[in-house]
Design goal:
about 35% helix, 2 domains, Crotonobetainyl-CoA:carnitine CoA-transferase CaiB, CoA-Trfase_III_dom_1_sf, 6-stranded parallel beta sheet, Rossmann fold, single chain, CoA-transferase_III_domain, CoA-transferase activity, elongated, 13 strands, CoA-Trfase_fam_III
Length: about 425
């Protein structure tokens, strides 16, 4: 256990005793470390001098200052880096490597997403660092893992969505207009890898606290993508038949899809026969409930190509708001398809306070999405905006390692910082 300090809010922190040395960049690793920071860990983000995390340049859009002028902080970077302290270090230099080894002595966790074997050249791999700190938890995030024939390949979310089967079940049916593979609109595999890495790190810390032993965590995007196929993967393993794309429909439930209304779209998700009956009765088509072809979900799945056009014609006669009000009144799950602007105006989103505004050194304030983990005693709280590049270099090296301002200035003059 280290002497990690709690954040400034004064609230109790689940991970207030944990310090993380974050050598990761882009999304999967930073998503993990942002979770840890939200839960109270002191996350020290190591960045390249001069340019920093790749996502700092992934704009526009950028955060804007009070005058509406773009800052240098890309919105993409802001999404995954709140709650951290930024320190610039050139890890290719011997002095930079020495600094990181000093920092490891004060940290509980190292998180990195370099190519397999790359950090070994710098003496920053797990075997080298556990010699310095035997109870270290060290998490590596790569595209394909530390072994296997693809281990040395670079892995990107889009690529893994394709290789890992997600795109084979995402997109419109091949026999319909617009059919074909489609990626998910956010980097879902990166995000899920960050979530799995968060769980793995906390499990390893619990093990360390019980036994005194650290360990190595090997997280791979491809492994995560295969695992998160969930019921789709299970369907294949138990049938031998590769699942196909269903667009906005469901392979096992009918009706469970989008429908066009007179002025927009809704989702109708009937999870049982009773909900289906209430749906068609609300639409003035009770005979569709009594039709023996559609009496049960297995029969509706069997006859979907006959039933769905009938339902589509029924829904098209009325407005979106009318359908939502009617179906909510009789307990049929339904809802609108919101664009992102509508999401942030949704009454439930507003009531849950999912947007948080934090003070920022160059933008004045930045708006971020609140962490969805709700803990009653140790809440996940965002109290530090994503840092400017190198914002905390002097603070961390001085307070944590005892380096003087003169020492830091000399390292900066050499290009180490």
């Amino acid at each position: 256990m280290t002497d990690a300090t709690e954040h400034n809010s004064g609230m109790p922190k689940a991970l207030g005793h944990i310090r993380v040395l974050d050598l990761s960049r882009v999304l999967a690793g930073p998503w993990c470390s942002q979770n840890l920071a939200d839960l109270g860990a002191d996350v020290i983000k190591i960045e390249r001098p001069g340019c920093g995390d790749d996502t700092r340049a992934w704009g526009p859009p950028y955060a804007r200052d009070a005058a509406g002028v773009d800052t240098s902080e890309a919105a993409y970077y802001l999404a995954a880096n709140r709650g951290k302290r930024s320190v610039t270090v050139d890890i290719a230099s011997a002095e930079g490597q020495a600094l990181l080894r000093e920092l490891v002595r004060h940290c509980d966790v190292v998180l990195e997403n370099y190519k397999v074997g790359q950090l070994k050249r710098y003496g920053l791999d797990y075997d080298s660092l556990k010699a310095i700190k035997p109870d270290l938890v060290y998490c590596s995030v790569t595209g394909f893992g530390q072994d296997g024939p693809y281990a040395h390949r670079a892995g990107y979310d889009f690529l893994i969505q394709g290789m890992g089967g997600l795109m084979s079940v995402t997109g419109e049916r091949d026999d319909l207009p617009g059919g074909g593979p489609q990626k998910v609109g956010v980097a879902l595999t990166d995000l899920m890898t960050g979530m799995y890495a968060t769980i793995a790190v906390m499990a390893a810390l619990t093990h360390r606290d019980r036994t005194g032993s650290g360990q190595y965590i090997d997280m791979a995007l491809l492994d995560v993508q295969v695992a998160m196929l969930a019921n789709v993967g299970s369907n294949y393993l138990n049938s031998g038949k590769p699942p196909k794309r269903w667009g906005n429909a469901h392979p096992n439930i009918v009706p469970y899809q989008t429908f066009a209304c007179s002025d927009g779209y809704i989702i109708v998700a009937t999870g049982n026969d009773g909900q289906y009956q209430k749906f068609v009765e609300a639409g003035g088509r009770p005979e569709l409930a009594g039709d023996p072809r559609f009496a049960t979900n297995p029969l509706r799945v069997q006859h979907r190509d006959t039933l769905v056009p009938l339902l589509a014609a029924m829904v098209l006669t009325r407005s979106r708001d009318h359908w939502i009000a009617e179906l909510e009144a009789v307990g049929v799950p339904c809802g609108p398809i919101n664009d992102v602007g509508e999401v942030y105006q949704d009454p439930q989103v507003l009531a849950r306070g999912l947007v948080v505004e934090l003070p920022h050194p160059s933008a004045g304030t930045v708006k971020l999405v609140r962490n969805p983990m709700r803990l009653s005693a140790t809440p996940a709280l965002a109290d530090l905006a994503p840092p400017l590049l190198g914002q905390h270099t002097e603070e961390v090296l001085g307070q944590l390692l005892g380096h003087s301002a003169t020492d830091v200035a000399a390292l900066r003059a050499k290009g180490v910082l």
